[in-house]
Design brief:
By secondary structure, this protein is of the alpha/beta class. 30% of the residues lie in helices and 24% in strands. Strand 12 and strand 13 form a beta hairpin. It binds nicotinamide-adenine-dinucleotide.
Length: 494
């Protein structure tokens, strides 16, 4: 990434300064520029795109596609298609993954130029409520601004007592580098990152163990949607230890020696366990060739000198904002991971547009009814709106329908039948409250449910909408028809 050569980097004025060039930051910068503002965008790395594009969503999806091919080919052997044992040229796979990222990063660089956004590569810190100092490769540049948008993101949570300098102890960035395929890989954290990386490394031949503190994987999601994934990976992976914590990781010549607290390692009888499966307790300790720690991310609010601008940052590093994305300092906005969960690129981009529009004098506010979640595991798991757990906790009167993909021709033709599409509707009005899907490519289906929620659709609207056949998307309409009672693809006894 070249800093704009036409700019004298010693004194720079910005109508809108954007700190951070991830999906939220570049979106905010581009929108502000499109609305006529003179914009300076500061990014510490040599490539725009932030975690998502460089060391997150995009490279992981490239590797997950490799995993999908491996699994599909393996599983079709039983149906008469076989290519023999897969051969992995890890260097080539890595180059391919990097080429995907590069083409997007290059695209962003072109968009920056087309919009005449001034890009400065360096690490920015506020020095007052109207200035940021940027440490560049060549020195320090001061940018003074009229308005600023903080989009400085988050970083992986590190557990301080672990040997974090040991190259065998990975965070998600290390895992995505694909330097080697460990024989035995332990994943600490059964959340989205942990399980996506487990999918990749399992396909590439690692023996996977997952250790999760809570009593189910992907704890924020309803258990019935997670169960098909749990059942499948339980067979594929060596171990999934729920309700288990790690007490220590010690660096040993032969590997990382991980000790487990088995006290809570027996999953309580409950919906998260496979019937009859009481879960096997973790060992006292075990040696692994690599350990990936994926136990969440921390906001970068404390790393940007926000206090010198008068911006309040809470203890965890989050910056509170209002619906216009304004911080407590009215001309400074904040967006993305740094303002709160969920830490998702698609939340950041929408918040970025709102901040840019407000900064440009437009009436705008962030009033999305839901932010959809997708775990790109195999099967994919996705949900939006109210979860069933939340509906129960809040005492909401709802109707629920769950359409089994075993009755979907499209799903069966993919060789898969474990999927489900669930819909929750308000009992009195039939309006959609929430939805979730699990199954191959389920993540693609959630967009329709989000649109239905945003448009205030009810089950009848969804059921009467003609869906192409045979598609997985039909399962959403079928679930709605189960609510209205008009389903013909299943027989439901009255
Ligand atoms: P997460 O919060 O999704 O999952 C972390 C998991 O680790 C949780 O299940 C938690 O219970 C468990 N955990 C916490 N401490 C533990 C411990 N000491 N031992 C064992 N388990 C422990 O976090 P993540 O997976 O690291 O992802 C970070 C963020 O990035 C999330 O906000 C996530 O939504 C986002 N992300 C999203 C996607 C996607 O949309 N597909 C992909 C990657 C990351």
């Amino acid at each position: 990434m070249d800093a704009n050569p036409a700019v004298d980097e010693s004194v720079i004025q910005a109508e809108v300064l954007v700190l951070g060039g991830g999906p939220g930051g570049y979106t905010a910068a581009f929108r502000a520029a499109d609305l006529g503002k003179q914009v300076v965008l500061i990014e510490r790395y040599s490539a725009l795109g932030g975690v998502c594009l460089n060391v997150g969503c995009i490279p992981s999806k490239s590797l997950l596609h490799v995993a999908q091919i491996v699994h599909e080919v393996n599983e079709f052997e039983q149906h008469g298609l076989s290519y023999g044992k897969p051969n992995f040229d890890i260097d080539k796979i890595r180059s391919w993954k990097e080429s995907v990222t590069k083409s997007l990063v290059d695209g962003l660089a072109r968009l920056v130029k087309q919009r005449k956004v001034i890009l400065i590569q360096g690490t920015g810190h506020f020095t007052s409520a109207n200035t940021v100092e940027v440490q560049t490769e060549t020195g320090v540049t001061t940018v003074s601004f009229e308005q600023a948008i903080i989009a400085a993101g988050s970083h992986p949570t590190k557990i301080p007592v672990f040997p974090n300098d040991d190259p065998r102890l990975w965070d998600s960035t290390d895992a995505l580098e694909l330097k080697e395929i460990p024989k035995k890989l332990l994943i600490v954290g059964g959340g989205i990152i942990g399980l996506e990386m487990a999918t990749v490394y399992h396909a590439l031949g690692s023996e996977i163990s997952v250790v999760e503190l809570m009593d189910q994987i992907i704890p924020g999601c309803d258990n019935d949607l997670v169960t098909p994934l749990y059942r499948r990976i339980k067979k594929q992976y060596k171990n999934i230890w729920l309700e288990t914590r790690i007490t220590s990781i010690a660096a040993d010549k032969k590997g990382l020696k991980v000790s487990f607290d088995r006290a809570g390692s027996q999953p309580a009888d409950g919906i998260h366990t496979i019937p009859g499966d009481k879960g096997k307790g973790a060992p006292e300790s075990e040696l692994f060739d690599a350990v990936l720690v994926a136990v969440g991310r921390r906001p970068n609010g404390k790393l940007i000198g926000a206090e010198l601008a008068g911006v309040n940052v809470d203890e965890l590093g989050f910056i509170a904002v209002d619906k216009q994305q304004r911080t407590n300092v009215p001309h400074i906005f904040a967006i993305g991971d740094i303002v709160g969960n969920p830490m998702l690129a698609h939340k950041a981009t929408h918040e970025g547009k709102v901040a840019a529009e407000v900064a440009a004098g437009h009436k705008a506010g962030f009033d999305a009814l839901t932010i959809p979640s997708v775990a790109y595991t195999d099967p994919e798991v996705t949900w939006m709106g109210l979860t069933e757990n939340q509906a129960k906790q809040q005492g909401v009167d709802y109707d629920k329908a769950v359409f089994p993909w075993a009755a979907s021709g499209r799903s069966l033709s993919l060789g898969r039948k474990e999927g489900l599409t669930k819909i929750l509707c308000e009992k009195e009005t039939g309006r959609i409250l929430g939805a979730g899907m699990v199954g191959p490519n389920a993540g693609e289906l959630i967009a329709e449910a989000v649109l239905a929620l945003e448009m205030g659709a009810d089950a009848e609207d969804i059921g009467l909408t003609v869906h192409a056949h045979p598609m997985l998307s039909e399962t959403f309409a079928f679930a709605a028809e189960m609510i209205t009672g008009s389903i013909t693809d299943l027989y439901i006894k009255k």
